[in-house]
Amino acid sequence: MTKICEYFQNVKETQFSIEILPPVKGESIQALYNKINPLMEFKPKFVDVTYHREEYVYKECNGGLLEKRVVRKRPGTVGICAAIMNKFQVETVPHIICGGFSKEETENALIDLNFLGINNVLALRGDAIKSETRFRPHPEGHHYALDLVDQIKDLNDGKYLDESLKGSSTDFCIGVAGYPEKHFEAPNMKSDLSFLKKKIDAGASYIVTQMFFDNKKFFEFVENCRAEGIDVPIIPGLKPLVNIKQLITLPSFFHIDIPEELHNEVMSCSNPEDVKKIGVQWCIHQSKELKKAKVPCLHYYSMGKSDPIEAIAKEVF
């Protein structure tokens, strides 16, 4: 199968890709296929599959004691990637995260991916879960995405956690995240770019950005990356705003700005369908401008809904 970074060598046309969520617990794989299928018309070069950490709840048991129970709300990303790759003959990119994983569990997941012929991964720190006030790494895991990139690169070099093992080398193409509006925990953009450069120097081959609604911020981000010596492909991540609540939830959760013009247009809408139309049209305008600038790929965050992405793709690709 093809490595993602190979798609962008001497690229002449902007490619199309999507990110999907694993189905909720109890939902069949066919339901996921039904969401992906309409987007296959546009020949996505790859499909990202997110990973959702296990969360836990405390339930009262005999004697009034509290029992900690792990709740897995979504099926495993590795199996879903293999199923999608087999069904649609498309490259899949599983998210590999720090949170909830020990180093050994990470190595085992990477070995499973290698066995399945999945040689593209997106290395992320991951977010805090609801029970955490801030991100907490696994006691025997990684604190930062940089550490994760290092471990993946070690496997590519044939280095396993058990140094006595003489295992075969893997061949993962590693992607990492970039933040046009700065990661919310970084003290400033300069330091954020410095950490990003370290991930590239450690072995990452491309960058996918956090969603944004102002293309100027993306273009400035790319310019600043190049000035920092970051020369890998930078893929803009886009998401259409589809309901009025997202004027609050997206800035709150993702720490991004909503442009005043978009905010005013959405607030002037009289019904939910008009809000969705405004959001889709805004994303179409973003996409066309970015495509004109010859970005290597347009990456769309579907958030489990394919119809807005399908409407955008019909106008752009």
Which descriptors would you attach to this protein?
alpha/beta; 8-stranded parallel barrel; 317 residues; two-stranded antiparallel sheet; globular; TIM Barrel; 11 helices
Protein topology:
Elements: H1 4-7, E1 15-20, H2 29-36, E2 46-49, E3 55-60, E4 66-71, H3 77-88, E5 91-97, H4 103-115, E6 120-124, H5 145-156, E7 173-178, H6 189-202, E8 206-211, H7 215-227, E9 234-238, H8 246-254, H9 260-267, H10 272-292, E10 297-301, H11 307-316
Parallel strand pairs: 1-2, 1-10, 2-5, 5-6, 6-7, 7-8, 8-9, 9-10
Antiparallel strand pairs: 3-4
Helix pairs in contact: 5-6, 9-10, 10-11
Describe what this molecule looks like in 3D:
This protein has helices spanning 4-7, 29-36, 77-88, 103-115, 145-156, 189-202, 215-227, 246-254, 260-267, 272-292, 307-316; strands spanning 15-20, 46-49, 55-60, 66-71, 91-97, 120-124, 173-178, 206-211, 234-238, 297-301. The protein has a single domain (4-316), classed as TIM Barrel. It is an alpha/beta fold. It has an eight-stranded parallel β-barrel with strand order 1-2-5-6-7-8-9-10, surrounded by four helices. It has a two-stranded antiparallel sheet with strand order 3-4. The radius of gyration is 20 Å and the shape is globular. Strand 1 (15-20), helix 2 and strand 2 (46-49) form a beta-alpha-beta unit.
Task: Give helix and strand order, one letter per element, not per position.
Answer: HEHEEEHEHEHEHEHEHHHEH
How many DSSP E strands?
10
The radius of gyration computed from the alpha-carbon positions, rounded to a whole number of angstroms, is: 20 Å
Helix-strand category: alpha/beta
Largest beta-sheet characterization = 8 strands, parallel, barrel
Task: For the record, give the distance between the C-alpha atoms at the N and C termini, rounded to a whole number.
Answer: 24 Å
